[in-house]
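Sorry to interrupt, but I need a hand with the structure work. Go ahead and set the record down below:
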Amino acid sequence: MACHALLVQIGVLGATGPAGRGIAARLASLGYEVLAGSRALERSEAAVLALQEKWGNKVKTLFPVDNDSAANCEMVIVATNWEAAVDTTILYSSALAGRTVIAMANGLEKVGQEFRPVIPPEGSLSAAIQAAAPEAKVVAAFQHIPASTFAALDKKMEGDVVVCGDDDDARNVVLGLVASMPDLRGFDAGSLVNAVGIETFAADLLSINLRHKGKGTLRFLGLEGYSSEANR
């Protein structure tokens, strides 16, 4: 887990929602110190207490805070639902300046029995988050890992994580984070402009899983010998 040496704390904005709770718990189970943020401290306290009651020492490095505190960590994950992601980022844009910020949400709407992508004027939700915090180093990652998969600490995660962002160092740090997660592989997809393809594919993936009643994830074939560390 080489990434541990690079990170002191990871802050999660919106850690009381499904995605936020899941990724906060998963990272804490790997030994990271995670500050689970919320607009209201009492909501974060309740969410962390529920996770502690369920998982015990597996989440002993998970701590409840408000979003202000979470936004001041070395790495910050925007884990709110996609509708709130940009507004939340705007609120903390000053605190996020110079920090590595992971954008993990996808703009999606459900129409009948399928999901459709919602593409903002910036081209992707990740790009919109970057525009909302222009001095932050925004990296798109984890768009295809379900919240329930992160949250199931008694089960391994499998899949490939596409990582893109305009700052090379920040992208490498996130690839290192992925490398510390057993059974996940991270792949460097270059600059943040490529996030549009990552995010829109999530609609296809969800629609396929819905139609076939499955839990499919993304896996690249022909790249079996590669790892997140090899991509760095």
Observations:
- The chain has one domain: 2-231.
- The first helix runs from residue 18 to 29.
- The beta strands are 10-13, 34-36, 62-64, 75-78, 100-103, 108-111, 114-117, 137-140, 159-165, 184-188.
- The domain at 2-231 is CATH 3.40.50.720 (Rossmann fold).
